[in-house]
Amino acid sequence: MNSVLLVCLLIVIIPTVFSKKFKEEEKPEWAKKDISDFNDADMERLLEQWEEDDDPLEPDELPEHLRPMPQLNLNDINPSDPEGILQASKKGRTLMTFVQVADNPTRDETEEITKLWQTSLWNNHIQAERYLVDDNRAIFLFKDGSQAWTAKDYLIEQEKCESITIESKVYKGKHSKDVKQEL
Length: 183
Fold this sequence. Notes:
By secondary structure, the chain is α+β, with helices and mostly antiparallel strands.
């Protein structure tokens, strides 16, 4: 019984000891250091080694500055429509828009109104993140910038929308005081 136990232990222990010995010899000098002694260069090499066998990321998973530019079909773009050209150039790029709520609302009212607008946009498959920047102002961040113009068409129709700003161009809401005075 004891001899069987001894043989089993040897079968488990001996390969482990030898494999550790051989693995230590295969490691580069920087990898033999204690992890607490690693400097920035050692950590960078470790990260590169870690990512070595990873599959490459899909283009939409890459950071925006590494993504390939979207292919623009110039035949589909109307040269007399600068807004259409701008919209096509923002396809697949992050874009921020500023939305101003009318009638001097409180911060809580702005929160509720813009949350409702964001939900409506999401329900129409327009993904926008929303950030309040003032009591009556919010940023809508679009991961696909071309969606900002579709969102603009929706937002300017809303009764509480004073204006929306896209790429430094201000679009007045149809119910804003400025538009009513022009009529």
